[in-house]
Amino acid sequence: MALHRVNPAELSPPTGFSHAVTATGSRLVFLAGQTSLDGEGKVVGAGLPAQFEQALTNLLTALRHAGGTPADLARVTVYTTDVAAYREHAPELGRVWRRLAGRDYPAMAVVGAVRLWDDQALVELDGVAVLD
């Protein structure tokens, strides 16, 4: 099996990770955790919904550059520093998800975290995609 690292120019330069990794044979894509970093590596978004939208956009950008689409996502884990706020904003977050990723939902989990890598980050998403 061979692995190929995919690091799109539109995303913040990776340090110690790849934004996506493809594996030939099974054609699995392991997507690194994405927060609401912009292309210059700065956290953007004033609240959880805005940060969720940017983090999901970043995850889907990495997936697209690895050759996948949102429908290829098999698993997504959401890490948040405020589970209560995530639940409060769940309807809005669902609308963001459907607008960006459609209705082919992956297996998902939401995990509460004390903090994320970037102090200002409120949410992080990672995932695994399976490509044909």
Describe the 3D structure.
A hairpin with a 4-residue loop joins strand 2 (20-23) and strand 3 (28-34). The chain has a six-stranded mixed sheet, with helices on one face. The protein is built from three helices and six strands. Helix 1 (48-65) runs parallel beside helix 3 (90-101). It has 132 residues and is of the alpha+beta class. The model has no long low-confidence stretch (mean pLDDT 93).
Q: Order of SSEs, N→C?
A: EEEHEHHEE
Q: Mean pLDDT across all residues, rounded?
A: 93
How many individual β-strands? Answer: 6
Structural class: alpha+beta
Poorly predicted runs are none
**How much helical structure, as a percent, in the residues?**
25-40%
> Rg to the nearest angstrom?
14 Å
Q: Termini distance?
A: 16 Å
Topology at a glance:
Elements: E1 3-6, E2 20-23, E3 28-34, H1 48-65, E4 73-80, H2 83-88, H3 90-101, E5 107-112, E6 123-130
Pick out its properties:
132 residues; alpha+beta; 6-stranded mixed beta sheet; 6 strands; 28% strand; globular
What is this entry, summarized?
With 132 residues, the protein is an alpha+beta fold. It is 27% helix and 28% strand.
